[in-house]
Amino acid sequence: MTVSTSSLNRTTVTLQQLAESSNKHSLQQTLTAMIAASAQPPLAQALSTQTRRNQQDSIAAIPFHQFCLDSRQLKKNDVFVLLKSQTLHSQKSRDYLIQAANSAAFILSEIDPIALLTTADMNTSSLADNLQSVAQQQLIALPCPVLYVPNIRDFLGDLIQAYLQYQQPVILPAIVAVTGTNGKTTISQLVAQLAQLMGMSSAVMGTAGNGKLGALVQASHTTGDALAVQQFLYQMGQENADLLALEASSHGLDQQRLQGMPASVAIYTNLSRDHLDYHADMAEYAAAKAKLFDKTHFPELTHAIINLDDEHAQIMLDMAHTSALTVWTYSLNPTKNATFVAATINPSLQGVEIAVRYNVSNNTGDVHLDSTDANHDQTNTITVISPLLGRFNVANLLAAIAATVAIGTDIDHDIERIAAVVPQLQGAVGRMQRVPSNEGCFIVDYAHTPDALQQVLASLKTHCDGQLWAVFGCGGDRDAGKRPLMAQAGLAGADQIILTADNPRTEDPNIILQDMQAGMSAEQYQRTHIEPARQKAIEYAVRQAAAADIVVIAGKGHETYQEINNVRYDFDDSVVLQNALQQAGRV
């Protein structure tokens, strides 16, 4: 996810020039605040008045080539931005600082450099005073200036985008951002498809890849770092994309990787247990998601689109109201007073027919989870035929329709046009993806949380004349508490489950599988088959499933690899399943 460099002038620039050239983000004030931060303790105590003045003046006027967040990619006269690591020891950060100083024009550090240089060398507390003095001298002696900017994440994205626009101005696409545990990938792709079918050039950024529709490049993270995100946004501007639909992960929001992204529409899907290896608890997880609806973080927001059926929705609603956004809600419950409601749902294995009831207004008033309204006289209804499988995909479609309406200009006309093109939609790769077979039904899905797996199985159970099978595992080096919950979700929704490896990473797959079996009853064990090798597990399911059965291969979806002991091996569930079906003579 890097910007093309061939079309950029790569002229040198100074921070002062960036501030003066940008009128969108008020970088003049940002630069003033940034330099002022260097005069605050403890850095102020470390440097003399003259030294501070020299550093401030020189940094504001030093020409540089570009910003860099990875010391390994740093080139001569780049600006190195040293950010706090979520995992690495301070010694590593100190090494990055010293290494970068040999090449950088200057360094902007989120970490207090005096404290970093001191604590990295400190062996005993009695040496603290001497080591701080030594650290002060080390900082002054570095080949380039270092500016301590503890709040740099508050404006780093703005700064990077100002640099890119200084090189060559482009018009950036409108942005629809989606957050939530489940549904982000599907909704972002549906929004992009709907917009494109309505005549806009669309792009996506997220788990399934980055780029314009039809030309996605696989991404390593749902939300890249601030530099990669801004470069990608700029590249989509270069390629004349009108719309960018992106996934906003809780990690990305918490670490402010999306700072400076001009999102105008924000969508909330749901919240269920995930990423508790990173967030302390569900409250912290929800708070990270709620940042997407905070205008102090995303000042160009106009619309919030929120799933009224989710128990955590009120947190998002409260933030959206505080930000005075136009709030539209969606629901699968026909008794709820949501902006977009699925009044009736008629599903099949070929898709679903939905009667969508809508009452769109620029609503900034209070909306509550328990809001219901038996009087729907002011609403309109339109029938939508969707090719997407699963009840949860009805919710995803409602969110996508709402977002597409929000970026449009004529609500009633746009809704009619949107309804007309819904049958042309395609589900995201690895999301309720049906793999062809001449008997039986075989599905690949990304469901990797208990809630997502439960929803997938519940959606398919109503169509299953035989037995419903689920093949899944849990990732290694992640929240171990989720493992038995995943197994219980599978047992609750499926007739037979096959537990296997997911991405074990550095853990023994057998240990993960043992964790998943915790608390199982004798009856549940009778419905459980254990096969650590994922390929063998898929082949077993294909051999065992009867003609009327449905088999779901869950957990990895679009992924084309399996990570074992820090090595990524080629592994695509849909490809492995296709091969197994061929070997079994079922295609």
From TrEMBL:
UDP-N-acetyl-alpha-D-muramoyl-L-alanyl-D-glutamate binds at residues 69, 71, 222-223, 249, 255, 257. Pathway: Cell wall biogenesis; peptidoglycan biosynthesis. Keywords: ATP-binding, Cell cycle, Cell division, Cell shape, Cell wall biogenesis/degradation, Cytoplasm, Ligase, Magnesium, Nucleotide-binding, Peptidoglycan synthesis. The gene is murE. It comes from Psychrobacter alimentarius. This is UDP-N-acetylmuramoyl-L-alanyl-D-glutamate--2,6-diaminopimelate ligase. GO terms for molecular function: ligase activity. Its cofactor is Mg(2+). Its main location: cytoplasm. Carboxylation is probably crucial for Mg(2+) binding and, consequently, for the gamma-phosphate positioning of ATP. A motif (Meso-diaminopimelate recognition motif) lies at residues 502-505.
